[in-house]
Amino acid sequence: MTYCLAVRLDHALVFASDTRTNAGVDYITYYSKMHVFAPAPGRLFVILSAGNLATTQQILDWLRRDLEQGTEENLNSVRYLFEAAQYVGRVNRRVQETHADALSRSGVNGEATLILGGQVGEEPHGLYMIYPQGNYIATSAATPFLQIGESKYGKPVLDRLLRSDLSMEDAARLALVSLEATARSNITVGPPFEIGLYRSGDYDLTRRVRYDFDSPYYAGLQNAWQEGLTTVFRGLPKFEWEE
Amino acid sequence: MTYCLAVRLDHALVFASDTRTNAGVDYITYYSKMHVFAPAPGRLFVILSAGNLATTQQILDWLRRDLEQGTEENLNSVRYLFEAAQYVGRVNRRVQETHADALSRSGVNGEATLILGGQVGEEPHGLYMIYPQGNYIATSAATPFLQIGESKYGKPVLDRLLRSDLSMEDAARLALVSLEATARSNITVGPPFEIGLYRSGDYDLTRRVRYDFDSPYYAGLQNAWQEGLTTVFRGLPKFEWEE
If phi over 0 gives left and psi between -120 and 50 gives alpha, with beta otherwise, what is residue A200? Predict the structure, then answer.
């Protein structure tokens, strides 16, 4: 399983992902799910991936090849971020079609769901979720985040605390809390966690960090959250009959 | 949708449920999902229900009829709580079979999943989840809670804070927090919320309370949790580059 999350802030984007992939519980491996394309000055694309690993790897290979071969449509030719979402959606569908018959005969699901974020020239920074069918949705002011994979465990804390006017560091901390909650409730999601921060106008990841279970920062954050919640829980109002 | 939760503490049980049922988003109604049977001194059974509403209502009707008619197997005849779980599981399966053909022709899922908790005589208090297939699982020391329905959003806070040595009031507060998190992330789960507290040896619900959105206690709890989490979030450690 996978859990990836991306946030569109007023002046930045935050990307977060786990790195665990599994084909059954006895074959667990680690792959980065955060893929960065900065194909030319003034354009940046970050792709987070969930679903079939073979499909996502082939999508990335095709995107790179299209760039190198200068095909009619590629990450350098698109003029808007939504055109990149359309293009990546089409590549996703084409890759799936390549193997659809063989996979369906084996009962394997070849679908991949992607998050694409970034910025093209003077266009505002943006964030899209690309479905296996190739269509996409963007964030909105009221829903400034997108999730793919095992999304439910990590959502309440986002619904509660995430706002688009947070600093990118605050949003990154919240993303780590959301990842940690998910990893705690579902063993197929786990560290190392990757966090990418993008300040609008930078056209490359402003920062990229990676935390394992025992990374001092991650361990400290985890402790602070756990202890903080324990304290809040102990201070909750008593029922009327307890007084 | 539904979210029900029950906790087995060292000396008590806590039951919690929402009351929202829906057949599509344009037909939302309210039904209690917490059903109490105290058929004779020294025996108590509490059933929480999720799934097809017609199935759960018919199960309850059959349990009541079996009690009244004094059939060979009923909630008065069982000698152990697990026998009650077996019996209720069989009734669940029989009710589903009654309508299985007609429902499957209409593409409707007639399944129901139940939580059964209570105490029979000198046996310890206990908690079981009864699957649509009629089989059951109990809690353990390491996993002192059971959930049915929309269970994921409300699980992280339980994984983090629930322990079997909590007081029943503390566990009830945590159950309300878990319900609130779920209602916030999924609009088909919502108040009024019902909470039942059972102290081992009481053989009837020790307390039963019901909270709506605007109930003073629930509103206060919700505020305290939200404000507490906001404070903890603001106090999380800074990344090394922020200092």
Answer: beta
Q: How far apart are CA B177 and CA A119, in angstroms?
A: 39
Q: Do B240 and A217 touch (CB under 8 A)?
A: yes
Supply the pTM of this predicted model.
0.92
CA atoms within 13 A on the CB side of A44: 23
In tens, the pLDDT along B164-185 reads 999 999 999 999 999 999 998 8
CA distance to partner chain B, nearest, from residue A188 (Å): 15
Q: Which of residues 201-230 of A touch B (CB under 8 A)?
A: 207, 209, 217, 220-221, 224-226, 228-230
Nearest Cα residue in chain A from B163: A230
* Chain A, nearest residue to B231 by Cα: A228
Structure tokens at A86: 């359309």
Burial readout B142-168 (b: 16 or more C-beta within 10 A, e: otherwise) = eebbbbbbbbbbbbbbbebbbebebeb
Contact A240 B225 (CB under 8 A): no
CB–CB contact A224 B233 (8 Å): no
B237–A220 C-beta distance less than 8 A: yes
Spatial neighbors of B211 by CB under 8 A, at least 6 apart, are B176, B191, B192, B193, B195, B217, B218
Contacts B142 to A, Cβ<8 Å: none
Question: How far is the C-alpha of B219 from the C-alpha of B226, rounded, in Å?
Answer: 11
Q: Which amino acid is at B201?
A: G
Helix (H) or strand (E) holding A89: helix A81-105
pLDDT for residue B27 is more than 80:
no
Backbone region of residue B24 per phi and psi (left: phi > 0; alpha: psi in -120 to 50; beta: other values) = left
- How high is the ipTM of this complex? 0.92
Probe site for chain A from B160, B162, B163, B173 (most A CB atoms < 10 A): B160
In this predicted structure, what is the pLDDT of residue A25?
67
From CA B139, how far away is CA B174, in angstroms rounded? 17
Tokens found for residue B65: 């009829």
Closest Cβ opposite residue B224 in set A160, A170, A236: A236
Please give the structure tokens belonging to residue A67: 């760039």
Q: Is the distance from CB of B199 to CB of A192 less than 8 angstroms? A: no
